[in-house]
Amino acid sequence: MLQILYLIAFVAIAFVALRNLVVNVVTLSKEEPKASPRRARRQAPHPELLDADGNLTEEPLLVIRATSLEEARSRLEDLYSGSPDED
C-alpha cells in the first residue's frame, strides 16, 4: 500500500515539474531571440567595489581562492619552515 502512495506522489511531482518546464520553454520561445538578454543588459559592478560617489575604488582588494587541502597544507608548511623563528 505504501509503494502505491509513493508512486502516486512521484507521478504528481513529475507531472508538476514537466508542466513547469513546458510552460517555461513556451514562454521563452515567444520572446524575441534577436539579442541575448545577457549581452543586451549592461553588467553592473558589485556594490562593494564602488565608493561613496559611485566610482570604482582604487584601493587594493583581498582575493580569496579556493584550494585543495593538500595545497593549503604545503603552503602553510613552506611558510612555517621559512619563518625567522626557526631553531
First-residue to last-residue Cα separation:
73 Å
Count of extended strands:
0
Determine the mean pLDDT.
84
The Cα radius of gyration reads 27 Å
Helix content: 40-55%
Spans of 5+ residues with little confidence (pLDDT < 50)?
Answer: none
The topology string of helices and strands comes to HHH
**Proportion of beta-strand residues:** under 5%
Number of helices: 3
Globally, the shape reads: flat
Structural class: mainly alpha
Largest sheet: none
Q: What does this protein structure show overall?
A:
There is one protein chain. The longest helix is centred in the N-terminal third of the chain and has 29 residues, at 2-30. The protein has a domain at 57-81. It has helices at residues 2-30, 37-40, 69-81. It starts with a helix and ends in a 6-residue tail after the last helix. Helices cover 53% and strands 0% of the residues. The protein has three helices and no strands. With 87 residues, the protein is an all-alpha fold.
